[in-house]
Design brief:
Helix content is 41%, strand content 15%. The strands form two sheets. An eight-stranded parallel β-barrel has the order 3-4-5-6-7-8-9-10, surrounded by four helices. A two-stranded antiparallel sheet has the order 1-2. It has helices at 3-19, 63-75, 91-99, 119-133, 149-156, 161-170, 185-198, 219-222, 224-229, 253-261, 275-285, 293-307; strands spanning 35-38, 41-47, 49-51, 80-81, 109-114, 138-143, 174-180, 204-208, 233-237, 267-270. α4 (119-133) packs across α6 and α10 (253-261) crosses α11 (275-285). With 322 residues, it is an alpha/beta fold. It is built from twelve helices and ten strands.
Length: 322
Amino acid sequence: MHRREFLRSAAAAAAFITSLGQLPAFAAGPGAIPRRPFGRHVDTLISILGIGGAHIGEHYVPEDVALKIVRTAIDSGVNFLDNAWDYNNGVSEQRMGMALRDGYRAKAFLMTKLDARDAKGAADQIDVSLKRLGTDHLDLIQLHDIHGVADADKNFAPGGAIEAVVAAQKAGKARFIGFTGHKDPDFHVHMLEAADKAGFKFDSVQMPLNVMDAHFLSFTQKVVPEVLKRNIAILGMKPIGARDILKSNTVTAVECLQYAMSLPVVTTITGCDSMEILNQALGVARGFQPLGKEAITAMLAKTEAAAAKGEYEHYKFATYPS
């Protein structure tokens, strides 16, 4: 494909993306990190930057650095914290719980994710997560990593996980309910349709949204419109693809974050395993203004060839048992 064809294709993708619109954002002042409404829950405002929970529990990240990352982010105006029951065998939740002591919990919108697909397993995981995180409630519980049609259906079957998260919400253990996944956009669409059929409405949906996704098995093109149509909060993840996108030598980390935050997402969740990486993300988020159509077109033109076969989105090829 010639460069002229790349640009024409990128322009079409950019036109589609910009047609999705952008969410309103509110900032406390110049240089502050803007916040956006949490889907239809317009009184709940979420920072456009979210801190991923997986990285802070990695064995190579000292505990004191992990705590400093979380607290510095909150002190800087970030309020969205991501985590999961299975991250680093619970270390991620434990460290985040430690960081949220001394009044920090009240400043955070705290989310974790569950792996269990049955009600009993999900209920047990919720209680374990609450204990690790040192809190009596989560702001958001998400059904984690939907990786197939059958996997999605298990949640809504009799005795499925959705029963446990709804019960947790009624008991005051959770404010909102969502789901996540990163393999195939069709599975997200099926999950939304399964919820519609069950008469259930999710509060959030989390998915990989980055410059590579725009070109290959695209959540941006296939799932985002469906979620917006339902007035559900969109949580973007993998803006840099665990740094794999940088290996393409087409875009910088800053450009990746700028692009991801310019989509109609409530927040862009990124992993930070050092203060340097955190400060880079904070620098992008402070006083952020979304990219325009011309800038988005140029970025998609630079990445289209590299993105064509999903080489830098390995998570989309992961295989799981049904």
